[in-house]
Amino acid sequence: MKPRGFTLIEVLVALSIVAITLAAGMKAAQTLIGNAERLQAVTAAQWCAENQLVELKLTKQFPGVGDSTFGCEQIGLSFTGRLEVRGTPNPGFRRVDAVVGTPEVPRMVVISTVLGRY
Hints:
By secondary structure, the protein is an alpha+beta fold. The chain is built from 1 helix and 4 strands.
């Protein structure tokens, strides 16, 4: 009667297949975590930019041409930003770009709007 069971080679092949599969799964999970963290940071940076543009609209003051900086913190993340105000061909309007980022990614989000003279 022949003994039943797996040979050592068969067990090692099966273990190597399982190890490769687990390594691929870990790599995929790390990629998903990185994407979720990036999406969270970009969303928070967008909130900072939108808040600055809304503040300009609510003050109802015609902004002067030039750049100004601001800081912002959202959901525990700190951002630096710059409002870039530029003239347009029509002197009654200004183009405003809100540029928000971090020291590692200085231009994470750029939101533009046009403000008119009130």
